[in-house]
């Protein structure tokens, strides 16, 4: 009987892990740079090829599994001229971002760790956030947080042109 329980528990473990995976718009040949569940919508930033040699491409995709609402750029392209990265260190944390502009809209993908305080035990209590800030003509329209444990792929962040960190956007 014990031998039968071990394989069943392993099978159950794999099924749970597969069920926990959120949808992604990245293809099998692409890397997930950022994948975020925003209520019923999915935001995916996907890369392909070698970004360090500028032969790689990157593309932002947003929508539902039934309808892709935005792809930027229209076809996967080099990040140069399309995407910018920035980062800042905070006391007890930090923030990483990837930014792009489409028309009058700015889209800022972010992940951050913020210290929320210290307990009586002296331990640090961090809060982790990730999401999307949308701006139009310089004004923040929305700040939406991922419902999953989304993280920016740090190895790719270093390969995207850097811009100055905008502290006024910090969610």
Set down the secondary structure blueprint.
Blueprint: H1 2-20, E1 31-38, E2 41-48, E3 57-63, E4 68-77, E5 83-90, E6 93-102, E7 105-118, E8 124-136, E9 139-145, H2 154-157
Antiparallel strand pairs: 1-2, 2-3, 3-4, 5-6, 6-7, 7-8, 8-9
Could you explain the architecture of this structure?
By secondary structure, the protein is mainly beta. Helices cover 13% and strands 50% of the residues. It has one domain (22-164). The chain is built from two helices and nine strands. The strands form two sheets. A five-stranded antiparallel beta sheet has the order 5-6-7-8-9, with no helix packed on it. It is globular and about 50 Å long. The model is unreliable at 1-19 (pLDDT under 50).
Q: What is this structure, in a nutshell?
A:
The chain has helices at about 1-20, 155, and strands at about 30-40, 40-50, 55-65, 70-75, 85-90, 95-100, 105-120, 125-135, 140-145.
Characteristics:
single chain, 171 residues, mainly beta, five-stranded antiparallel β-sheet, four-stranded antiparallel β-sheet, 2 helices, 9 strands, globular, disordered N terminus
Overall residue-averaged pLDDT value: 85
Structural class, from helix and strand content?
Answer: mainly beta
* Poorly predicted sequence stretches spanning 5 or more consecutive residues: 1-19
Instruction: Give the tally of β-strands.
Output: 9
- The overall number of domains is 1
> Which geometry do the CA atoms define?
globular
Query: How do the strands line up in the largest sheet?
Result: 5-6-7-8-9
Strand content: over 45%
Instruction: State the helicity in percent bands.
Output: 10-25%
Computed over alpha carbons, the radius of gyration is 19 Å
H and E order: HEEEEEEEEEH
Biggest β-sheet description:
5 strands, antiparallel
Number of helices: 2
Q: CA-to-CA gap between the ends? A: 53 Å
């Amino acid at each position: 009987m014990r031998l039968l329980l071990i394989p069943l528990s392993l099978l159950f473990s794999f099924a749970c892990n597969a069920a926990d995976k959120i949808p992604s718009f990245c293809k099998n040949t692409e890397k997930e740079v950022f994948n975020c569940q925003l209520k019923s919508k999915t935001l995916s930033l996907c890369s392909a090829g070698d970004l360090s040699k500028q032969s790689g491409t990157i593309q932002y995709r947003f929508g539902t599994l039934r309808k892709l609402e935005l792809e930027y750029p229209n076809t996967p392209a080099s990040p140069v001229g399309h995407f910018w990265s920035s980062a800042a260190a905070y006391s007890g944390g930090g923030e990483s971002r990837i930014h792009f502009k489409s028309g009058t809209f700015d889209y800022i993908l972010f992940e951050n760790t913020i210290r929320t305080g210290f307990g009586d035990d002296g331990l640090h209590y961090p809060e982790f956030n990730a999401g999307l800030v949308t701006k139009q003509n310089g004004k923040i329209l929305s700040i939406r947080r991922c419902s999953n444990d989304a993280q920016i792929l740090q190895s790719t962040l270093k390969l995207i042109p850097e811009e100055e960190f905008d502290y006024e956007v910090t969610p």
